[in-house]
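JOB MANIFEST
job_type = single_chain_structure
chain_count = 1
residues = 63
[input]
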Amino acid sequence: MDIRWQKSSFSEQPEGNCLELAAGEAVVLMRESDAPEGVIATTPERLRALVAGVKAGEFDTLL
């Protein structure tokens, strides 16, 4: 499988640390650009739920 990683458009520098995503068949892969050997796989639905929770501030109390 040819994995095509994509960085956020908010990433300021090509070598800046950021989250990278790659879409596979029924799966989304995530990794940190400064530690690309660690890859997390999830479903699109679970990633959408995570992003919605972050936007809603559900994790703000963890900081």
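[summary]
The chain is about 20% helix and 35% strand.
The CA atoms of residues 30 and 40 lie 5 Å apart.
exit_status = 0
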